[in-house]
Amino acid sequence: MLYNNTNDTVSWTNLNKNLGITQFYTLSVHPTNKDYIKGGTQDNSTPHSFGNLIQWGNPGAGDGAGCAINPINPNIQYNSSQFHGLDRTTNSYSSSSGFAPNFGSDSVPFIGDLWLDPNDPTNVYVNTNYLWRYKEGTGAWTARLGGQLLSAGGQVRSMGFSTNSNIFYTGASDGDVYMTRDFGATWTRLDELVGFTNRSVLDISVNPRSTNDILLAVGGSGAHLYRITGTNTASPVLTNVSGSGSTGLPNVAASSIARDPWQPETKWYVATDVGVFMTSNAGATWEDITQSRGLPNVEVRRLVANKTTGYLTAATYGRGMWRIKIIPAQIQSVVANPTSVMSGDGGTVVVSLDRPAPEAITVPLLDNSANLNLPSSVTFAVGQSSVSVPYTTNEVTTSETVTISAELGGTATASVQVLATANFALTRFNLNNSSNAAGTLGSLANSDNSRLSWVIRRPASGSTTLFGRTRVATPNASRLRIEVEGFTTVAGLTYQILAFDNSAGFFRVIGSGVTGTSDGFYSADILNPAAYYSPTTELQIAFEVLPSGTSGNFTTAVDRVRVRALP
């Protein structure tokens, strides 16, 4: 209000537009778009950012309640209003329709909730004093799973999902805690097994690395975070993980749990009536990360940690939505070396962070081809900022470019060109200083354990050699590779791979090494093929084995000889 004493007038300016006082009950975030969030609210339906945090939309009506975004197909979403006024869309709310069943005589909550199975988000769950399941795609409802009353004196308030769709948990407003291990067909009551009191269970979080280890966030007075381990046993164990004293959780309701995506077993975030608290040691001590990180001291109803975007998002009851970056580090680069390989070869991938890892961090690695093989993840130890892992490729008949990516608070990529080759078998061969030869030219054509073998005739007189010829139908090849697969009956003999240099008029050594007594792959590259071609593009090669001080006889057995030409 502005008063003008000159003309005795009053003018008003509306400041409500920028006043963040929305009271959120629930929260859902887009799987990949950090700016797409929504939540059910007191009296204000279910505001959606639709990817624009400056201009929100608001499909729905009444009091907003449970909501969800399908993590696999974000166009499929769900909203709800009081008493389970359920609404769904398959096109991000260009249109929508109701899908609520008749709940009959069930106790339906005024502000209900709904949950998606993270393993199969076509399974949609809603709460009464029983649990109901809707199947996206078929539109079928399964009422009152297992016929089990899950709250004798209230309603289901929370669900916790394991990494197995068959195993999930429910918590109720009267303290009842149940577990199913068969998709809801039968149930086991846990609160009675562990002696849990009748306090409202506001959230359940299942350890993603153990389906039998859960956390309970509870209301009422006393400790507010509990852990139950061994839920698959006859005697599960209940442990208070609220901490104590000045480093414990405050004596106010804990309403939501978010596990750190990179350290889910030890690092947890808990929403309370006075803000958000964090532990890095599985609940031994807690840190208030509310005002110190910029969040008002306000009741926080929901927390969601998104590993893809790296954000922890908080839905508050009175101060709107907030978020904070929680990634311990961020991907800086992915570098492949070499970036162009002959198919069948490999190399390394170096993944780098923007800072030394403050804790052990595992980063997933992805590629878009079945013809490049690399580990599914790379792990950084404390203090490491770069890690190198190997990659291999399969032999291909058509060249392709493969993209390798790593994601941690952002995405970095590298490309590897996998080059197809033209392969040529020997068309002729002969042996030098050999005896008792067995096998044929066909024995050298394939890697099939059909071998050409021979015994050195006179070890004292020098090496034994396989000479071969092939016609290379790729006269402009940029590189030739000679490959020999075989073994000798004496280990550690020196071998040489030679090719006839037509410009120089003699066999030139292009590779060497030592043999073994089981099949080995011996290869050497010719980087200037034109000098080795005859006028008819015939190539002469040799595989020579030297006695290397061995006075006795030995056998050389070769399974395959081939020439690979890189166009």
Question: Would you summarize the structure shown here?
Answer:
The chain is mostly beta strands and 567 residues long. Helices cover 1% and strands 44% of the residues.
How would you describe what is shown here?
This protein is mostly beta strands and 567 residues long. Among the domains are: 331-419, Immunoglobulins (Immunoglobulin-like); 422-566, Sandwich (Jelly Rolls). 1% of the residues lie in helices and 44% in strands. It contains one helix and 47 strands. The strands form twelve sheets. Strands 37, 39, 40, 42, 45 and 47 form a six-stranded antiparallel sheet that branches. It has a five-stranded mixed sheet with strand order 29-36-35-31-33, with no helix packed on it. A hairpin with a 6-residue loop joins strand 17 (201-206) and strand 18 (213-218). It is elongated and about 115 Å long. The termini are far apart. The mean pLDDT is 94.
